[in-house]
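tokens incoming
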């Protein structure tokens, strides 16, 4: 399939993380042009492109940027730009490729965004386990500063933008934007109720834009090629290309950039290499572990875009972390493993999430071990229903949706396990 590789086009070039190589590949070519543009014109291109945030929710990026109050309403407050490089969602491993293989593309995107947002300080918030990537980012930052591409008076434009790398301590919840902001401020990484939304009141109570790595790395291409070219890719409501990380029972797990909207089976077969020989498809989690699971029948009718997955399978494209499971998978064990993660990562502020995730995990362990009854399945369902939408942040729903969907769509597997109670289970 012929389409521009907007995000991954430089990944195969040796030393693509070095400034000289990046520049030879066209990185930073759009920065002078963007710095000469009126800030609102940059935002308008992003709006017109229909780019949707790649962190999971798919919120329109240009619209988010336009929520930042104009200078006269900011009472002298600065605007901050935060790049969310926490990437801790199970199944999602795309941002680390952008950071490792093309850090300058991200810096260019952030510098252009800073111009649009009248922002002079930005941070890349990166998860603690990515310390080796943080070191590479620091080296790349030093090169960019030395070349006048970041810092004071970038390329003589009069625009200042300082960019820092901030390493978190490895908590999944610090990927949630308000928790990320608290952590950056030096507080406990715990989410806050919204509103106020960060674009109005975020870091240090100032307007703050939080965007995913992939979202920001697309911006230079939008400046170069324009909104119409971007909209020509993908579907009407899900324009552009997107990175998908695919893992599980496929022959070629990895990260692939594709135009949104291609059939899901085509993606699994042509990009991920298809299933292992002799195996059949059992289930797919399409968008990182936090979204509802899909059955093979749903996979067959879905395409890789926000609308199709939601309309046809009641699930979400999310962060694009696809987990493929074949007929050898023990789905009860798989869900139990997922809930172990959520029980461990709950920040503990809300009772339904703090207690409920632990309880769901405990019940699932008993189901897995053949020690539960059908009543326990009802309790499990009840717990999930009472966590969803009753918590400060979306983490609660993220833990509840896998449970609700596995229990609904693969009920027989769970029933089979509880009906074998007392006779020992695999
Ligand atoms: C529990 C939880 C974890 C999250 N983790 C991430 C993450 O690792 N990376 C990310 O970009 N967004 C993550 N998000 C979404 C962010 O809160 C935020 O919506 C996103 O960074 C906005 O960027 P975008 O508009 O470019 O998508 C998470 C949300 C929740 C509720
Ligand atoms: S839902 Fe969970 S992770 Fe989110 S604030 Fe409440 S306790 Fe913390």
């Amino acid at each position: 399939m012929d389409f521009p590789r907007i995000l991954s086009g430089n990944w195969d070039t040796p030393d693509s993380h070095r400034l000289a190589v990046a520049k030879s590949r066209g990185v930073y070519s759009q920065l002078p042009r963007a710095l000469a543009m009126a800030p609102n014109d940059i935002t308008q291109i992003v709006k017109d492109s229909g780019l949707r945030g790649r962190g999971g929710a798919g919120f329109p990026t240009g619209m988010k940027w336009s929520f930042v109050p104009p200078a006269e309403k900011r009472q002298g407050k600065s605007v901050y730009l935060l790049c969310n490089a926490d990437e801790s969602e199970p199944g999602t491993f795309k941002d680390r490729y952008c950071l490792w293989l093309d850090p300058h593309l991200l810096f260019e995107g952030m510098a252009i965004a800073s111009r649009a947002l009248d922002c002079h300080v930005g941070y890349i918030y990166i998860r603690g386990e990515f310390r080796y990537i943080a070191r590479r980012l620091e080296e790349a930052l030093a090169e960019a500063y030395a070349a006048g591409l970041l810092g004071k008076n970038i390329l003589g434009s009069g625009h200042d933008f300082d960019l820092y790398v901030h390493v978190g301590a490895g908590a999944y919840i610090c990927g949630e934007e308000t928790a990320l902001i608290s952590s950056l401020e030096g507080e406990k990484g715990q989410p806050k109720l919204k509103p106020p939304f960060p674009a109005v009141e975020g870091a240090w109570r100032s307007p703050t834009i939080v965007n995913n790595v992939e979202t920001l790395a697309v911006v230079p291409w939008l400046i170069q090629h324009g909104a119409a070219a971007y909209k020509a890719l993908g579907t009407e409501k899900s324009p552009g290309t997107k990175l998908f990380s695919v893992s599980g029972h496929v022959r070629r797990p990895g990260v692939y950039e594709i135009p949104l909207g291609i059939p899901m089976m085509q993606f699994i077969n042509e990009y991920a290499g298809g299933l292992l020989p002799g195996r059949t498809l059992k289930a797919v989690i399409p968008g990182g572990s936090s979204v509802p699971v899909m059955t093979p029948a749903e996979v067959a009718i879905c395409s890789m875009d926000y609308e199709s997955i939601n309309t046809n399978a009641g699930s979400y494209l999310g962060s694009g972390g696809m987990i493929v499971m074949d007929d050898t998978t023990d789905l009860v064990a798989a869900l139990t493993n997922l809930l172990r993660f959520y029980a461990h990562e709950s920040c503990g502020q809300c009772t339904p999430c703090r207690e409920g995730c632990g309880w769901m995990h405990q019940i699932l362990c008993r189901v897995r071990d053949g020690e539960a009854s059908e009543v326990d399945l009802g309790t499990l369902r009840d717990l999930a229903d009472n966590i969803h939408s009753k918590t400060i942040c979306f983490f609660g729903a993220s833990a509840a949706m896998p449970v609700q969907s596995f229990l609904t769509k693969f009920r027989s597997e769970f029933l089979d396990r509880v009906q074998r109670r007392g006779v020992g289970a695999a």
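note: The chain has three domains: 19-231, 241-326, 331-419.
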